[in-house]
Amino acid sequence: MPEHHNIIVIGAGLSGLYTAWKLQQTEQDIIVLEARSRSGGRVLSARRGDSQFDLGPAWVWPQLQLRVHQLITELNLEVFKQFTQGDMLYEKNITQVERYAAQSSHSESYRVRGGNQLITSAIQRRLPVSSVYLNTRVTSINRKDLRIEVLQNNKPAVYTANKIVLALPPRIFQQDITFAPEFSNATTDLWKNTPTWMATHCKIIFIYDKPFWREQDLSGEVFSHAGPLAEIYDASPADGQFYALSAFVGLNPHQRKHIDNDQLIASCLAQLKRLFGEASQTPQEIQQKDWSCEAYTCAKIDIESPVQHPQYSHVSPREFWDNQLLLAGTEVALEYGGYLEGALESADRVISICA
Description:
Structural class: alpha/beta
Order of helices and strands: EHEEEHEEEEHEEEEHEHEHEEEHHEHEEH
Distance between the termini: 27 Å
CATH superfamily of the largest domain: FAD/NAD(P)-binding domain
Low-confidence stretches: none
Number of domains: 2
């Protein structure tokens, strides 16, 4: 007999874990199925010593995003203000760098002390260990008996539920999961036309023992048309154990695939030398995360789509099969789509239906 649960959440990112946690407080029987070997989804922090820095989303705005503020408070986590003191740089080309005072776009941005992964880790610790199934990739969902077929550690298994929460990016579940009955072309086209947040981003962290940019009265914030780094920010942890610059690569996934990674890093260091001088050339460590290489984040259509800032809040409906199949995730949020706040907003909507 298939293993049956009241509610099955597919996806152990922020929205999926938060949904499961809040609904388990109503004493419902809930499990979470996650294809990766880890939870957290795009919320990912790398550890260095006792500190962590974010390879996924880094910023929160507690004064504006009330759900994030409430969750951080509930989990007894702390935030600290993004470092923006000093001038910012604007690189027009490889020979022209302009300097601007008090121009930061992140003067009201905050970061979670210890990294954003502390949020998802803290939520998971509040779930029963047996309720999160890793290495479990859903392959099909049938409306009859709400039957879910999976590959669990590469072995087939079957689950059934009273309700299913799809806490995945629409392009991912449209690409990877077979539904029976099939959804209309209008619905699947809507999913296809919803870009996955962060899917094509590549983030590089350069770690140093001294904040040489601060010593030059620079905030570390850079916008560049020269590249290969398009945006740079101070990513130093609050405890001062080390200092770091976090940068987004301006090359798209196709361009990145045609450049050797050592060559890419060398080009990035050459850019940092143009901007900050010789002190930037000896990082203690370099951490890199290319989200376009993550099969459970970046769908094929994400790579093929034009690079643009995603626009969300248009994905409707979000409930199917007489409210037996529900969508969650930042891409389907009614507000703050593409932010952690959006992941929580979409989860709250699901929770209100299932509670």
